[in-house]
Amino acid sequence: MITSQPTSSVKVPRKRITVYSVIALLGLVSMFMVHWRFGLGLILLAAILALFSIPIRLNPLTFKKIKRFKEIRRGYYSFLILLFLSILSLFSEMIANNRALVVSYEGSLSFPTYADVKLGKEYGLTGPDANAPVNYRELKSRFKAESEGNWVLMPVVPYGPNENNKYEGVLKPRPPKSFLLSKLLLMERDKDPESRHYLGTDSTGRDISSRIIYGFRIAIFFALAFMTLVYLIGITIGCLMGYFGGIFDLIVQRMIEIWSMVPFIYMVIIIFSVIPSTFSISTRVSILLGIMVLFSWTGMTYYMRTATYREKARDYTAAAQIIGASPMRIIFHHILPNAISTIVTFMPFTMAAAITAITALDFLGFGLPPPTPSIGEILKQGTARLDAPWIVICAFIALVMILTLVTFIGEAVREAFDPKKFTTYK
Amino acid sequence: MNKNLLNIFLVAVVGVFITGCGGSKDETAEFPPQDVTAEVQEYYATYKRVPLELKAKLGSGAISQEEFNSVMEKEPLFFSFKTLEDLPGDLLWENGMELEDIGSRNAIKGGTQYAALQDFPRTLRRVGPDANGSFRPYLLDDVAMRLARRHPNNTAIGPRGHYYFGELAKEWAVDKERKTVFVRMDPNARWSDGEQVTADDYMFMFFFFHSTYINAPWYNNWYKEMYTNITKYDDLTFSISVPEAKPDMNSRVLDLIPLPEHFYRELGDDYVQRYQWRFQPTTGAYIIHDDDIEKGRSITLTRQKDWWAKDKKFLRNRYNYDRIYLTVIRDIPKMFESFKRGDLGGTGLINLPEYNYEKLPDSDSDVQAGYIQKTTFYNEIPRPSYGLWINQAKPLLDNNSIRVGIHYATNWDRVIREYFRGDYIRMNTTADGYGEFTHPTLKSRSFNIDNALAEFAKAGFTDRGPDGILVNANGERLSFTLTTGYRTFQDMLTILKEEAAKAGLEFRLEVLDSTAGWKKAQEKKHDIMFSALNVSPEMYPRYWETYHADNAYDVPWLEDGETPNPERKLKVQTNNLQSVAIPEMDALINAYRRSDDAEEMKKYAFRMEEILYEDASFVPGFVQPFYRVAHWRWLRYPDDFNVKLSRSSGEWFLAWIDEDIKAETLAARKSGKKFEPTVKVYDQYAPESVRKGASLAGNAP
User: Fold this and answer.
1) How many CB atoms lie within 10 A of CB B365?
2) Distances (CA, A) of B267 to A229, B122, B271
3) B529 CA: distance to closest CA in chain A (Å)
């Protein structure tokens, strides 16, 4: 019989705890002092580092599964890469941005990335630039030309995601700077020595690499939130159906059948036509998330319902009932840990589906509100601008890479959690 | 789970496509016979037009129903019947024959023109639900004959309005004192089924457009309000009267298009279904045969070989193609590929910069080989008013300094220069392109951060917040929603947004679909709207709809007529999108509407433009002063290419197909033989500022 025992107390070296705590504390402080996203990134980093180093004494079966997962190299490395990219994306402002990382002006350093908008006069600009927000790229070349010891350090991609950049005097697609990309795809190459548009620009001159970086961040965290919510609702309702059975099961199942017949894209279109789009972008994204979750949790319930039915018939459930455990305790403490392995294997695929869905919605123009950077939106532009093939190719490659990583993880998880390999019943 | 999500998604997408391809239902259902003749006669004998003032009085409760009825007793009938002896003798008859002919004498009749439609027409009716689609010009606007038509090259204003040439009318007389236009019809005018066009068809036209059977309230309203009487003198002689003798009163009457009474005998409640796919006999050159309609795919127009007007001056060199074959191509890029393959004769897609400069640049091999010719033609028509419509009924936006600041903070110059590649020009007034009626010297404010900041500072916005947006002492941010119903202009608005942020102004973009966007503006719920009112080639701009206080508030003023009524409520469903209410403006608009003197009206119009400039609630955007067309070499145009008033190269049907050149070009494409490349700009009607541009001038004939 399997039951999940609470893991016994763990020992983590003191030193490490101190280091992680310091990082987390720093994050907490910078959430308020610098930028919430920057802080959140630090906290998450600390949490993940801690998780990895804690020699948790897991349930031996789970431990075996994780060990097996680690052994499947392709999946494990995909997981590490995706994890790294996700954390990195929290610091996107320091990778792709039109604000400088560091400015040294008359001997004093300033860090504009997360700071308030600065006006030109603060860096000694005059004329029409004095009262306008600083253009740090221009500032950089200006300082260089003046050579008075002032300097500007720009991020790797010195362009914001919503910024329109000229090419030959007008706003039109600029071919990629990347030598590799242009060679590989036999495309023209941007020969401007000043340009750092590695992947070129889209049809109104917005930097594609910058948009992909920010688009990735939104997509991946959107998918994570989507998955968490869908599982929370789906698992709870599925378990309840399976555990209580009878009339309850019958009614809820019929309701789910009706509910799942509602095509969610219509709902997205309808709901988005009535909500005022003056809501801030984050509110709109949350609403989109809500709608998608509302119409997607139903699929999960079927698996949980069957699994719970199966587990409910086992002796350990009967034993728990006799001891007098409450239904909630039985469901979430006894049954769920044993039924979860089926679900875990779906997780990466759910994420892939969510990323696909959000991309598709953006492609159709019903997704994230403009000008939110998104891969689907770049794809859409690209298909209309086949004369600038790098737009569609970059978006396509980015999407394929993300989905491949997620799918590799999914396959590995599925194999590692294969119940035939590990589950034994006494 | 993931599959489920994907499935739902796929089903939905497929569903969208399937519903999008509807219209394949068999429409040949039987309709019971019916006859509307008796009802028409009854209507002629009884209908009286309600004068607008009387209607308003009854509506506001100033007079009782009884009083209304007694006044109406004395009103004359709308439809009158008289004899030729009753025709006034002092009329000045004119026929426009002295005007210059249009089109080219070299035009050859024949050939098939291939063109594309994005949607299959949903009906062949000319009015009623779904009739106002992209196919209507082929049935009505560009093809159907009117009494007379405004000369498209001579846009001067004469003593009796614009200059017209006769189509269905042999001659006409404008009588300003009687507010009436008298018409003698061309005895040769025929419907395409052989019936003669007579005064009865004009009588019936009024019955038809007054009728509720047609499900077209706009027509009901227009034909009841804009005309006061029709009098038949004999089968070919009649007169139509209008309520005001405006300078353009001739156009109100001469632009009327008759309806064949004999065809609409079966008019009734089922008009919409009954006439859905029946082709109405036309007075124009092109007809549609039943077997030329392939629903959802294509529709073909055929030229009548013995058209009654084929030798008439002004018409003889036009309507040259034997057939016009219209295919449905829903996808724009595909439409362009079809053109490049030679499946379509011409395309207007190069109006878009990306097509003109990247997809079909002058250096394109087909252009360089002379197979495809590119033409830019500067026209002169009233321009759609693209710009920002600021709703001054909203908080903060009621402050004039903020509105002026918004003017300085919107960088149209950058949009025009970089996004539209310098093709367009800045709009300067609320009514550009009206020729003599457009203010000659007024210029719109240019982007200037310092001026914008100074104006915003006047309104108390002096400090920048952490995100660079200005805040006032109460902590309010200088942030407004910028709504639009045009998805196509989304990227352009993003540029305006980014530029405005430099001046400390935030635009929150709201991109809605066109219906929702327009609805929001009509309900006056917008802060700032990016939109345009489409305008028809009229003599003078309209101000009452957009700038009169009556269209802004229910009761705009207190008794004295100039103090704002503190309890006034916004009036919805009007076109005063800016909620402009200025007493001086109202007075000018009323005078302008009453005036029958063009010079006086111009003076009023200029003064109104100056007031609106000071009021600063409309940020003039851009104007496309030309249209471009790319066409295959065998599609020929007159030497001066097109007429001044044309909106597109096809509107006046001046082009023709030269079959010999077509054969030569097709052969040349195979053999690789090349011709002289032809990329032309016709700027004879271009505004001064554009004509000076050295690169553009020079190649017009």
Assistant:
1) 9
2) 59, 20, 6
3) 13
In Å, how far are A56, A58, A60, A69, A424 from A66, measured between CA atoms? 12, 10, 10, 5, 17
**Percentage of the residues of chain A whose pLDDT score is greater than 90:** 15
Determine contact, residues B205/B264, Cβ cutoff 8 Å: no
Asked if B490's CB is within 8 angstroms of A265's CB, the reply is: no
In chain A, residues with a C-beta closer than 8 Å to the C-beta of B506 are none
Please state, in angstroms and rounded to a whole number, the distance separating the CA atoms of residues B12 and B20.
12
Phi, psi of B325 (to 5 degrees): -100, 115
Give me the helices (H) in A245-280, please: 246-260, 264-274
Q: Which amino acid is at B366?
A: D
- What residues of chain A lie within 8 A of the CB of B11, using their CB? 263
CA distance to partner chain B, nearest, from residue A240 (Å)? 18
Q: What is the pTM of this model?
A: 0.79
Look at B502 and A133 and tell me if their CB atoms are within 8 Å.
Answer: yes
Q: Find residue B81's DSSP bridge partners.
A: B232
Q: Do B495 and A116 touch (CB under 8 A)?
A: no
DSSP secondary structure code for residue B98 in this structure: T
| pLDDT given at position A422 | 54
* Of the partner residues A266, A278, A387, the one whose CB lies closest to the CB of residue B359: A387
Q: Which residues of chain A have a CB within 8 Å of the CB of B359?
A: 387
CB-based contact A204 B419, cutoff 8 Å = yes
How far lies B119's CA from each of B172, B292, B297, B298, in Å?
Answer: 39, 16, 9, 10
| B331, closest residue in chain A (CA to CA) | A384
Q: Which residues of B121-154 are buried (b: 16+ CB within 10 A; e: fewer)?
A: bebbbbbbeebeeebbebbbebbbbbbbbbbbbb
pLDDT above 60: residue A424:
no
Please tell me which of the candidates B450, B464, B513 has its beta carbon nearest to residue A273.
B513
Rounded to the nearest angstrom, the minimum Cα separation between A55 and chain B is 33
Q: Which region, left, alpha or beta, applies to residue A106 given φ > 0 means left and ψ of -120 to 50 means alpha?
A: left
Confidence of residue A417 (pLDDT cuts 50, 70, 90): confident
- State the CB neighbour count (10 A cutoff) for residue B694: 6
Residue A214, sorted as left (phi over 0), alpha (psi -120 to 50) or beta, turns out to be alpha
How far B458 CA sits from the closest chain A CA (Å)? 16
Residue B278 has a pLDDT of: 92
**Cα separation, A398 vs A413, whole angstroms:** 23
Contact in structure between A202 and A381 (CB atoms under 8 Å): yes
Phi, psi of B324 (to 5 degrees): -120, 115
CA distance A124 to chain B (A): 17
Determine the pLDDT at residue B201: 95
Task: Please tell me which of the candidates B1, B419, B510 has its beta carbon nearest to residue A346.
Answer: B1
The better pLDDT of the pair B218, B499 is held by: B499
Beta bridge partners of B629: B375
Q: How many Å is the Cα radius of gyration of chain A?
A: 26
Amino acid at B635: L
Tally the residues of chain B: 701
**Length of chain A as a residue count:** 426
Best of A278, A293, A303, A350 to substitute, by most chain B Cβ atoms within 10 angstroms, is A278
Nearest CA to CA, how far is A101 from chain B (Å)?
Answer: 17
Nearest CA in chain B to A35: B466
Tokens standing for residue A129: 């630039």
User: Cβ B8–A371 below 8 Å, yes or no?
Assistant: no
